[in-house]
Amino acid sequence: MSGDYPHALIHLDALQHNLAVVRQYAPRSRVMSVIKADGYGHGVEAVAEALHDSDAFAVARVREAVQLRELAINKPLIVLDGAATAADLITAAEYQLSLVFHHPSQLDWLSQTDLPQSLPDAWLMLETGMHRLGLRAEQFPQAYGKLTSCGVLANSPGLMSHFANSDLNDDPRNDAQMHLMADFKSRYQLPVCFANSGAVMQLPDAHHEWVRPGLMLYGASPFKDKTAAELGLRPVMELRARLLARQVLQPGEQVGYGGDWQAEKTTLMGVVSIGYGDGFNRHLSGRGEVLIHGQRAAVLGRVSMDTVCVDLENCPQAQPGDEVIIWGEKLPVEQAAIQAGTIPYELLTQINPRVKRIYRYGQS
Ligand SMILES: *Cc1c(COP(=O)(O)O)cnc(C)c1O
């Protein structure tokens, strides 16, 4: 297996460990594991199988849920973005998907469309402060009335909302969102699903009947000031490449496209077999770091499509063929995200199919 570089080694035991951590943080809640975007880039089929202990799975789109049903997954499947067309309602009935209703149009489609069979249930998305997808407080009563009187739900709906700032500590906006939710919960007496990863770990009052974590399952921290290890999480993806070449650069020689980096002294440089054509973020040009022989090697110059150049100063013994860790347990993806000016969510979901996923339970 190890001949195929670069690859993403996916530690399925770490995924299961992180699900157990979710249950420790929220012991009284059911867990809707978020596996959208190909399981945050880890490969949804293996992720779903490893997370079989989840109470439900959530994805963003109808097509993602259909893919899971076709893999013979028969857990509740929640479609977070709901129906994008009336035809999606028919698909949801055929495949028994739990749609999120966040806009009055979706309820109009529901009353205008003949469904081949009942929908299993549904979720109403309440706007509490994210201002993205959600029914505003004044739209909610009518939406609730239409949904519960449509006669095509086999079970009663739930109430959902989404945090805009659960990654921030002591942010009053989180309290405001929770306050509004508490008000609607007491008025409508519905099961609530609110907490994403940040809220699972730091807002116990937001746990309610269901939690809805994504990122933490994959072993990354949503918080700027806390590492995954401090939170008890284990990184699931270990992204690995190979050293392709080493070069001795003379003072004045420039590296790569545009010559953005120029040697000021004699420099031992390595060329690593991963680039933006694999989804390695080009904003890591001149800023990222990788691990070779356990030592940090800084990115020199621009990231290319298939390669990236690094400084071998800390690992002068490195030779072509040696393994290079792009991120993993010893070099958190969160660090690369800060260096790239982005978030771990983006770096993980960017790794494209050119990079083989290799699945493993247990060490090495
Ligand atoms: C992606 C998503 C989640 C998961 O959020 P994490 O921060 O990854 O835990 C939860 N709810 C909704 C609506 C989402 O879009």
Describe the protein.
With 364 residues, the chain is of the alpha/beta class. The protein is built from eleven helices and 18 strands. It has helices spanning 12-25, 36-40, 44-50, 62-70, 86-95, 104-112, 140-149, 172-188, 197-202, 333-340, 344-350, and strands at 7-11, 30-34, 56-59, 77-79, 98-101, 122-125, 158-160, 192-195, 210-211, 237-249, 254-255, 261-262, 267-272, 289-292, 295-300, 308-311, 323-327, 356-360. Helix 9 (197-202) links the parallel strand 8 and strand 9 (210-211). Helix 4 (62-70) runs parallel beside helix 5 and helix 10 (333-340) crosses helix 11. Pyridoxal-5'-phosphate (PLP) is lined by residues 34, 36, 80, 162, 196-197, 212-215, 222. The site of pyridoxal-5'-phosphate (PLP) has 11 residues, from loops.
In short:
This protein is α/β, with parallel strands linked by helices and about 375 residues long. It has eleven helices and 18 strands. The mean pLDDT is about 95.
Distance separating the two termini: 13 Å
Oligomer: single chain
Helix content: 25-40%
Q: Total number of β-strand segments?
A: 18
Question: Biggest β-sheet, characterized?
Answer: 8 strands, parallel, barrel
Element pattern in H and E: EHEHHEHEHEHEHEHEHEEEEEEEEEHHE
- Global shape: elongated
Beta-strand percent range:
15-25%
